[in-house]
Amino acid sequence: MKPIIYVPRDSGALSVGAESVEQAIAAEALVRGIEIELIRNGSRGMYWLEPLVEVALTPGGERTAYGPVRRNDVASLFDAGFHTGAATAREHKRALGPTEQIPYLAKQQRLTFARVGVVDPISIVDYEAHGGWRGLTAALSLDPMAIVEHVTTSGLRGRGGAAFPTGIMWKTVAGAHGPQKYIVANADEGDSGTFSDRMVMEGDPFMLIEGMTIAGLAVGATRGYIYLRSEYPHAHTVLNQAIAAATVKGYLGHNILGSGRDFDLEVRLGAGAYICGEETALLESLEGKRGMVRPKPPLPALEGLFGCPTVVNNVITLASVPFILAEGGAAYRDHGEGRSRGTLPLQLAGNIKQGGLVERAFGITLRELLYDFGGGSLSGRPIRAVQVGGPLGAYLPESQFDTPIDYEAFIKIDAMLGHGGIVVFDDTVDMAQMARYAMEFCAIESCGKCTPCRIGSTRGVEVVDKIVAGTEREANTALLRDLCDTMVGGSLCALGGMTPYPVLSALNHFPEDFTKS
Amino acid sequence: MPVRSEPVTDAVETALARHKERPGALLPILHDVQHTLGYVPDDAIPPIALALNLSRAEVHGVVSFYHDFRHAAPGKVVIKVCRAESCQAVGGDTVIAHLKRTLGIEFGQTTADGQFTLEPVYCLGNCALSPALVIGSEIHGRATPDRVDELLRAARSGA
Questions:
Q1: Does domain B77-157 have CATH number 3.40.50.720?
Q2: In the A/B pair of chains, how many CB contacts fall below 8 A?
Q3: Whether the predicted interface score ipTM is above 0.95
Q4: Quick check: A11 and B125 CB within 8 A?
Q5: What would the pLDDT profile of A90-139 be if each residue is shown by its tens digit?
Q6: Could you report the per-residue pLDDT of B99-118, keeping only the tens digit for each?
Q7: In a mutagenesis test of the B interface, which of A423, A444, A446 is the best target, namely the one with the most B β-carbons within 10 Å?
Q8: Least CA distance to A187: which residue of chain B?
Q9: What pTM was computed for the model?
Q10: Going by C-beta distance under 8 Å and a sequence separation of 6 or more, which residues neighbour residue A369?
Q11: Is B85 in Cβ contact with A193 (below 8 Å)?
């Protein structure tokens, strides 16, 4: 039997040479006359081990991992017999043992990411064999309100950052009237330190398709759009391949699985505007306009895309739905704590030794993530600050590392979980410069609709510069706080309204960095 | 009004034929034009506006709103380097400074030989392997000045 060798096509793996490793394996096998089957999977999310090559001796058999594999490791891997499961292969310097037993992976609770890195992302057969479409099949047998009920029971909240209860949004759209309803997946994953949407789209795209189709059945929508950021060309390719495959097999399009229900899906590319991750700006962009934020109300649930009732959900939110329908809302709700139910795919990024994706039930602490999973900083220096929740998230000092991952616990410390990105900084970071960057980023990405964000961000950069330069430091610090107050209270959306979080947290927790000169 | 060059007319007509009837067609059309020409020329705007029943100002407004759309032809190879927090945390600024110094250009500029255009990007979603950059269509992680030199050499020789 031919051994099966997995080399990820995930763009993170590609960024450290997966393509050249795959070519080397294929070439080496050919030269040696060894028959192998090469499969391009997604990433397991252990990025410091990428390119992570896995070998299974039989289809569905236990997988053995090797990583990080370089092009010039390939010949010695064949010499050691990694393709035959030889004992000598276990001694190879890249050998990691059975993949599932690597502690980073073994300690996770992968509900949403169960298949990511395991399956061939564009094989519908693989998807089925690993529990795919069970949620859709269940949904097709249910009344629309019963689907919404499952989602409500699950306690699922918007994973894009707003944490709004998904069941309530779906119920609103289900009860709204319009000539057409839409499901929009927000795949404009622009927060630095986040890549979970990308991993799903590159590694298990059928899960997103299934989740969106279930949403369509629940609210009576027959059209869906995935609004994908243009920075994700690999995800674009995989999604289009998956949509084509699902359509051919009758999981998408007209008369889904003979049910008489329709759902058409299309990927639309953004064009490099961070603000289009804000749901109303996203809708404007989908309509072919400038990505300007709309005032709310009206809610997109009632007047969304082209003025019609629209569900706008983050990729992870929608990708969580197939599990909820397949296993029941209660099975999802049984994970987590308080009002934060289920799991959150966390992303460890920046100056971290073992960066990657960690899916765990709510309740795990930052410290466990940073040290037990992350292994401390990449540089080996002390971790001084972490930014949770992207460019609009607060900077947290070491004294707050015991905060549990929980929406309400983070609100209590004037922080937010956002999309679950955790960017780590060691003690060489200059927090005044990070505060300045937060304002600068807001100025670059502001849509310009409201004054606090458009003008406030530019003034913010100037005021930080004055504080750092020592110009009327006290007065300018008071001015910066006042400006932040105006932005929080007076901005139309989260960009202007939350840019003050990183700024004020830097100022409050690391004041010494503002007074160095 | 200047006469449109043939490639521009062709690119616009092809893009319009492909997307004109789709709801919210403007972004797909602009992406197509830029994909073909490398940028969205000013003289592409009037025919797009006419076809979509928009004013030229509206189309110009969309082109200028989005960071992706270029107003001038880029160099042979476009380099997009990440400026965001995760990359800053592991020396992204050093990589950016090195690129600017080596190429002798700032963001938004093209080298005199027309080889490279340097653009900032705010997150490539490769944050566990920061610093990240894209050269042409290839993404690279764990960038260092030395690694960047190797990649530039490879890009120059067309490898």
A1: no
A2: 153
A3: yes
A4: yes
A5: 999 999 999 999 999 999 999 999 999 999 999 999 999 999 999 999 99
A6: 999 999 999 999 999 999 99
A7: A423
A8: B125
A9: 0.98
A10: A346, A348, A358, A360, A405, A422
A11: yes
